[in-house]
Design goal:
mainly alpha, single chain, 512 residues, elongated
Length: 512
């Protein structure tokens, strides 16, 4: 018994697109820009000639998305308009996912994969964020589709399309290379074993074109940006016994699989059952997809691409060259995983329709049960602060609140915006520039490593030692770090007002 024949209809991608459009657009501007989004915004405000240098200095990413955002901001700088660029990229990724599943297995498999992608909490989240992850989904899905088409047709336009989309993906997000290169390498090995010399030559030519397009970026940017942020300790690792390494792989991988279906979970303890269900269901779908391809004697090249990319990804994570596990970085594996999961549902439906329907229903149930990640609500905090603030009272903006708080002031016409695009990095470095302390605001230096008491003294010295009262603005700060600093301030000052929202706060202290 098979799935209903109408699942092979071309037009069914339209309701999937409409569903995805609704899920992404209905809450597009519900939350204010958070830390990462605000940094992306400020970097994109640089003049076009200064944009590459600004990206290289302030972000651990290549420049494509920021360049697109720079031009997109001509439509508006409000949260809805800024995020709409990601929404458009996310929607365009769905037809690419559907076409990839159809090329690898069948039209129903592609449709199911696109349906899965439309519902995925991480995909919805990053379709509603100012950032490169929605464009990552689009460029990777398109690249894998073109590689599959080139494998089958061996046509020049498909090889050229592969090279161009590979370069676009690399210029958007370095992690894309951990999927693009292993997949192409696996195809090259297949061509070599089968002695398809003409096809191997065309693949090599396309790879040369990709190298010419992306080479300057990888040679000139990647080395400087690799040893920063979460990969600052890259390659300085040691390995344990085989048993320890296997246990580590299983532990990190179960969170990676769960992340695909549930999204970010800050504290997994209350959601243990959901995590178990998430990675268990996706693993079952992947096994069903592999079994379907084997039992139906289909070409197994796509499984080879998945395994090759997964292995390289894990190795990069193991040496701390790229984060592996329950983070947004795992989205590089999504196009491969969701395609095979779609094949799994379609393969089950071919043999016994209730099994395929049950897998799809379980998928829907898990993604609907997944908890959302709370915002850093500087919008509410800023509104409350502006209602309570007196112009002569100094304001200290602590660390992670700086980009988002200043963006909220800009939206309300409270900030002139005459400073470099990477102003916040200057202020974190302790720059005496006027834009770091435009009265009454003080965008503070990076003092996170100091003890709470030393932080209190640094804040008091920055705003004005003689001030009778001052505000401190918080956001993107760990709960323990913020609580310790609040306690230190309470020891020396009287807390007079508090404006708190999820992930953010504003506090007024007065001398005793």
């Amino acid at each position: 018994m098979n799935f209903p024949r109408f699942l092979s209809a071309r037009w069914l991608i339209l309701p999937v697109l409409l569903l995805a459009f609704y899920l992404r657009l209905r809450t597009l501007a519900a939350a204010p820009l958070w830390f990462d989004e605000a940094m992306e915004f400020w970097v994109a405000t640089a003049a076009l000639a200064d944009l590459p240098a600004a990206v290289r200095e302030a972000l651990q990413d290549p420049p494509l998305y920021t360049v697109l955002l720079h031009f997109w901001m001509g439509l508006g700088r409000d949260e809805f308009t800024l995020r709409l660029l990601s929404t458009c990229a996310s929607l365009l990724a769905l037809p690419a996912a559907a076409a990839l599943g159809r090329e690898v297995y069948s039209r129903p498999a592609g449709l199911i994969a696109a349906f899965f992608l439309a519902l995925l909490p991480p995909d919805i989240r990053f379709a509603q964020e100012v950032g490169q992850y929605a464009l990552l989904s689009l460029t990777l899905s398109a690249n894998l589709l073109l590689l599959a088409l080139a494998r089958r047709t061996d046509r020049r336009r498909h090889w050229t399309g592969w090279a161009v989309t590979a370069a676009a993906a690399a210029f958007n997000y370095y992690g894309s290379l951990l999927i693009i290169l292993p997949a192409a390498g696996a195809l090259a090995l297949e061509r070599l074993v089968l002695r398809r010399w003409g096809s191997l030559f065309r693949l090599g030519t396309a790879a040369l074109g990709f190298a010419l397009l992306a080479g300057p970026l990888l040679a000139g940017w990647l080395p400087d940006q690799l040893f920063r942020g979460p990969t600052s300790g890259a390659f300085a690792v040691s390995f344990g016994s085989p048993g320890q390494e296997w246990a580590l792989f299983l532990d990190r991988t179960r969170y990676l699989l769960s992340y695909q279906l549930t999204g970010f979970i800050a504290d997994p303890t209350p959601h243990t059952a959901l995590i178990l269900a998430g990675w268990g269901l996706l693993l079952a779908a992947l096994l069903a997809g592999a079994a379907g391809l084997v039992l139906e004697r289909r070409p197994l090249y796509f499984l080879g691409w998945l395994l090759a990319g997964w292995a390289v990804y894990y190795l990069a994570g193991r040496v701390d060259a790229y984060p592996y596990g329950m983070t947004r970085h795992a989205l590089i594996l999504t196009p491969l995983l969701i395609t095979v999961a779609g094949i799994g549902a379609a393969a089950l439906g071919r043999r016994w329709r209730p099994a395929g329907c049950l897998l799809i229903a379980a998928f829907v149930a898990i993604v609907l049960a997944a908890p959302g990640e709370g915002p850093e609500d500087l919008r509410t905090v800023t509104d409350g602060f502006l209602d309570s603030h007196r112009p002569d009272t100094p304001v200290y903006v602590y660390y992670g609140a700086a980009p988002g708080f200043r963006y909220q002031l800009l939206l309300r016409g409270q900030d002139e915006g005459r400073y470099p695009a990477t102003w916040y990095r200057d202020c974190w470095g302790g720059s005496p520039a006027a834009y770091c302390a435009p009265h009454p605001y003080y965008y503070g230096a990076w003092i996170r490593g100091l003890p709470p008491g030393a932080k209190r003294e640094a804040i008091a010295a920055a705003v004005d030692p003689e001030a009778a009262a001052f505000w401190v603005i918080f956001s993107h700060t760990g709960e323990e770090e913020q609580a310790a600093l609040l306690a230190a301030l309470d020891e020396a000052y009287r807390r007079e007002a508090s404006i708190e929202a999820e992930g953010a706060g504003a506090y007024l202290w007065r001398t005793r």
